[in-house]
Amino acid sequence: MTTVAWDGKTLAADSRATEDDESAKSNCIKIWRIQSKVAPVRGEILLAGSGDEFACHLFMQWLEAGGEPNLHSRGVTGGEDGEDFDAFIVHKSGTYNANRLCCLIKNLEPQWAHGTGRQAALAAMRCGKSAIDAVRVAACIDPFTGGRIVAMSLKEKK
Questions:
Q1: What gap in Å lies between CA 26 and CA 75, rounded to an integer?
Q2: pTM of the full predicted structure?
Q3: Would you say 8 and 110 are in contact if contact means Cβ atoms under 8 Å apart?
Q4: What sign does the dihedral 133-114-34-53 (CA atoms) show?
Q5: Cα dist. 87→21, 63, 158 in Å?
Q6: How many angstroms separate the CA atoms of 20 and 18, rounded?
Q7: How far does CA 149 lie from the centroid of its chain?
Q8: Residue 143 CB partners (closer than 8 Å, separation 6+)
């Protein structure tokens, strides 16, 4: 799956992707900077996804299109054949969690992680490590976390 970590300033994720047979490739993008048209996260956001890659991309399109219903009915909601995913959104108003139901839930925790390396990443951050270091720690023990680590922060307004 993956490890995504947020330390309050930086959002970081690994780049390993696994197939159903658990073969791995390490070149998957899991964090994007996009313009959302969906309330309450209108404007620039950082979006990180774990789980089904196609569902994550469809959710990203849904945010960019302003919650356009046809995208939602095309598969973001999953269903019997649909794959699930988790999304983490960083916006100037705070951070949010979402999944295939496209419901954005405000996150009240100062640090957050999701994916198969979640527990290792949270433990590392609670010990004072950055989000980037937390993903590195998770990669040491989670076989589904690995590859290059990508990190982003929201741009500061001058």
A1: 26
A2: 0.89
A3: yes
A4: positive
A5: 24, 11, 28
A6: 7
A7: 13
A8: none
At residue 105, what are phi and psi to the nearest 5 degrees?
Answer: -110, 125
Strand 94-99 vs strand 85-91: parallel, antiparallel, or unpaired? antiparallel
Per-residue pLDDT of the chain (158 residues; tens, 9 = 90+): 799 999 999 999 999 987 766 667 768 899 999 999 999 999 999 999 998 888 889 899 999 999 877 665 655 555 545 568 899 999 999 999 998 888 899 999 999 999 999 999 999 999 999 999 999 999 999 999 999 999 999 986 54
Quick one: DSSP state of residue 52? Answer: -
Q: What single letter denotes the amino acid at residue 16?
A: R
Cα–Cα distances (Å) from 101 to 2, 43, 77, 87, 104, in that order, read: 20, 21, 5, 11, 9
Query: What are the counts of helices (DSSP H) followed by strands (DSSP E) for the chain?
Result: 4, 11
What's the pLDDT score for residue 25? 72
Helix (H/G/I), strand (E/B), else coil: 121? helix
DSSP state of 147: S
Q: What is the distance between the alpha carbons of residues 91 and 101, in angstroms, rounded to a whole number?
A: 19
